[in-house]
Amino acid sequence: MAVEWKNLDTLASYEALQKESTVDLASAMTGESGEKRAKTYQIPMAEGLSYNYAAKCVDDRILAALAKLAEEAQLSEKFAALYNGEVINTGEKRLVLHHLCRGQLGEAVQADGTDKRAFYVEQQERIAAFADRVHNGEITNEKGEKFTEVVQIGIGGSDLGPRAMYLALENWAKTTGNMKMSAKFISNVDPDDAAAVLASCDIAHAIFILVSKSGTTLETLTNESFVKDALTKGGFDPAKHMIAVTSETSPLAKNAGYLDAFYMDDYIGGRYSSSSAVGGAVLSLAFGPKVFADFLCGAHEADVTAKETDPLKNPAMLDALIGVYERNILGYGATAVLPYSQALSRFPAHLQQADMESNGKSVNRFGEPVSYVTGPVIFGEPGTNGQHSFYQLLHQGTDIVPLQFVGFRKSQIGSDVVIENSTSQQKLCANVAAQIVAFACGKQDDNKNKDFKGGRPSSIIVGDQLTPASLGALLAHFENKIMFQGFLWNVNSFDQEGVQLGKLLAKKVLAHDTDGALKVYSDLLNI
Amino acid sequence: MAVEWKNLDTLASYEALQKESTVDLASAMTGESGEKRAKTYQIPMAEGLSYNYAAKCVDDRILAALAKLAEEAQLSEKFAALYNGEVINTGEKRLVLHHLCRGQLGEAVQADGTDKRAFYVEQQERIAAFADRVHNGEITNEKGEKFTEVVQIGIGGSDLGPRAMYLALENWAKTTGNMKMSAKFISNVDPDDAAAVLASCDIAHAIFILVSKSGTTLETLTNESFVKDALTKGGFDPAKHMIAVTSETSPLAKNAGYLDAFYMDDYIGGRYSSSSAVGGAVLSLAFGPKVFADFLCGAHEADVTAKETDPLKNPAMLDALIGVYERNILGYGATAVLPYSQALSRFPAHLQQADMESNGKSVNRFGEPVSYVTGPVIFGEPGTNGQHSFYQLLHQGTDIVPLQFVGFRKSQIGSDVVIENSTSQQKLCANVAAQIVAFACGKQDDNKNKDFKGGRPSSIIVGDQLTPASLGALLAHFENKIMFQGFLWNVNSFDQEGVQLGKLLAKKVLAHDTDGALKVYSDLLNI
User: Where, by residue number, does the polypeptide cross the bilayer (chains A, B) (predicted)?
Assistant: First the structure.
């Protein structure tokens, strides 16, 4: 069937969904009904994860309406068009191929005169070989000493995803003997960022990864200079301490200023680049190529699940559908991501970019204004920390904020302590279980200050342990959820024109080519 | 004049404000009008900071209406009642005295049979003396060796504020020779948090600060056990490595298990405790007592400014008024905090707690439901990082999100690099100046995908450099803004009943006293 790109509010199934009466969540989640929902409203995910949506404002009736919406919006067909190489990024006239970094989902995709799957695999193999040579001491610093640290220089998609993935696996790697090199990250153009990271580094034994697809990102090139100055001042040759991750056509490619260069292309958006060379170089150096390969396997397994046409068997699709229902019909403006895992401390920041930069749009893929709301604000912090912070508003504030919990049965390090007959890991898990029910059901109290209305929806992704494979599956779930939501809203989730105007004006400020308010602010900031 | 606590929607000035037509921000900020606004819509703040609100949706007419609202809502009188010791925290029947930690704003406040200002000063002096003795080697580990690290164990208010303040000053302290001991923080009940921090510590030379007002916070006591186990296994005596910050009536007070204990009381809420012993102990140990004293001076100077009755001379009050106008009349649901300073990386997370936990309420201070929205969702990340992330939605999303920028003319470390004729610090400042105008004015484009509507409000706080004093002023500004907003919404900003239900249910889960959905989730998480 040919794919038709239609606005959400032109779909008959959306109109039908709007007419369905809403679910009384507090009542639905109480007693036997709640027990049955908690047991049955659950979908197996890749790598032993599961998606439980019992505490969402849905029932069989709403789910049936959402399934019709998925069908009419041709979500599966659109995903197939994407992974089979159609020009899905219409604004920039590009294919969207991040799935192909982790496996072949459909037909072979040819572009730029090459098979793209083969291209991505070739880069993975080149990175793996390079990392092995660094780890076994074939590639060393000027004195023949092993490199012990890796520092990524990048910003936005070249920073948030790889950083979140590194932090997610650092303690796992230390515990399982997979830690090859520690990793650090420099991103901000604030000179204190680079200065502080460099001060914490053993630069004699550090290898720096410069990540910029175009090779022209101002922040990143500025920070590269900062690092090169430090290397030179320390008596080191920058060309012996730096590699590049970039596109084949960038000035950083085949450049004698780098030990080596690894390639991505225009079909991998920055915020979807964790499974490309952008994540691959730093994660392979830090943890070894096998760990990165396992991460990709987990992501691919989740991608395969995302091909299911029935949303009740496709957690990313169902998550997307429920999110659109909450945003467009229930009218909720924000979503909180709450991992009960300290290792996922920066995962919400990565999803904040992935989601808000993809779907924070006011025009459809044809450049026409849409007359409905699109992407919500995404924010979050790890639990249980958040419980002692912003959960007050989530429980008793005047706005309802849908919640996405993530939890694991086992910790990564395995050290624990028993207090009051339970381990810390049990306390952590008990808290997330308790929160789901507290948010959904609430608790009446005659003192209205202690009254909880409930009716606050959440879902939870549960896994056994956060490992490279389950992390890959988790990441791919959210990438695919965002993609499906973009299809529903009929926006182009793969460009980001909204970041351009600020760049343009900043250049004017730096060139002192300003007047009016901009000149006043420039003076105020002493530029 | 006697203070009357009234709901926002009962005030005649609020009704009048609702009737004012809204400002066309894009037009107001363009050309001469924009230049004039940028120059004049600015208020000096404490410690050389300034609050510029030119890019907010206000004009002289709206400002006059807001001033009337401030007067009718008796904001100044309510602040005076607070600092003069009335029971402002009605839910818990407590005074609210965090301002008194940093200076005397009004009358002497007697409570618990003592002058409270004298009590807080006494604790500061005791902490200063203790820190000096640690720094000069009078207090040492069992082997007579100096302590070199400090590790704070706390959660929520005992963690986020002190952590954000420490990170804000770490590079400043290293650069100015004020770094006495490095600090780390353990907060999450996730056992991987404590295990990872301990693995990164030199525990032989570490002093641990246990922070819990009640002495009964489960996460904190659990992490204390974790630390004590590690100390004992390492052959160290926990009682020689730990101090407590708690209330005088807690089980941690006057307890032989600690080297010493420093006191706070029930009149300091956790999220307002950075200027009490909770922030004082870790900051004085890390940077020396003089630095903490300077931080308090800056906060006090901001508190004094907050006493101004004219909102055009009182940045915290005006910020609060504009925020309520944006939330209740313009209907914006979230606010982003965007410091252009890597040192403020965790400042947004602290404000997220301070704001959302204070004003995320649905009942007024008498426990009656309110019929208007209260506290918004607060989120943020440092710029320029955010520009390459969620700014897409801020510029072109379907919802408008008001923005709070913060910027400094000078970096903390002072190392910099010139690329394309500008330093990194200049690039950083140029970007924030550019963003204000880009958000306000937008830019028309026939390609609607590249069109920026503008009309997106922001304000900026500008300072010369982030120092202990300016950080104190910045923190106090936001604390006072939140307080004034609580007065406007007529909520009790100083309790947090919304965190209780989750705690209660978590205990049931751990006691295996569950049924229905809660039991299913407990099983799913293997508790």
Answer: none
